[in-house]
Amino acid sequence: MKIKRPPIVESVSDFVEHVMGWTRGGERPVAFRGEQYTGWQTQPKVFRPDVGLYEHEKNAVRDLISIHPQEFQEDETMFDRLVRMQHFELPTRLLDVSTNPLVALYFATAEYKLNGKAEDGKVQALFLPEERQRYYDSDRVSCMANLANFTADEKREMAKAYRLNRTDFNKHPVVRRLLWFVRIEKPHFEPQIDPRHLQQPVFVKPKMSNRRIIAQSGAFLIYGARRLSNTQVDTDLRLSRATVPAGRKAEIRNQLERLGIHASSLFPEIDKAAGFVVSRYKNSGV
């Protein structure tokens, strides 16, 4: 069987043509993600072995809140806090995506070298059914976000509990602890969690509460389990991919800049804007 290779993106117009043709069963992508290196797995940063934070996720979350409590005063839920932590570049169980494909293309054009060799980037289009799409205040999102409050041992216990039926699962001590965290946000939450719902990533529409999310048309995939159980395959999440050649990254980024997609527009903080201004004149050759 011949494996179909991802299309190659040579220009912005080329990319737009690919995007317009991306459909699955008549459905359009719910979001897009750009990565500067094709060799990376698509997963939240906290799950990556090289980051080394998964075993210490609970403490990392608390450390950041402890150091900067004022930054989190207005956050009502654990999901809100994870979004803010992601903004401050703490690895979390959230995966950044955008509903704007050109934003994803911008991130795919960032330079990346491996052993001195410039590497290709990629843009992925994500397809998920409506039942796997949620808003920021969803019960399912609350359950998944609050897994960040678990110790490494508790997460291992939860991984074992996923094998139980729904009734026994909700009686398990580690699940009762999860319920305790969720009820801080939602006092009337009932113990009726479907274990499958914690294992499958969900697309989340966040509050447009910070300038960067607005500028990047930002959204998230939230992950519960680090990996699916051996008996489960996620047949709902589908990806289409395009490759951005290393040799075309600079020109494509220049084209995006002419369309208003650049560091200053996507990162509205003043330090990012200043960096963009400096790079513009540095690269002008004057």
Automatic annotation (TrEMBL):
Residues 26-124 form the FRG domain. It comes from the Bacteria. This is FRG domain-containing protein.
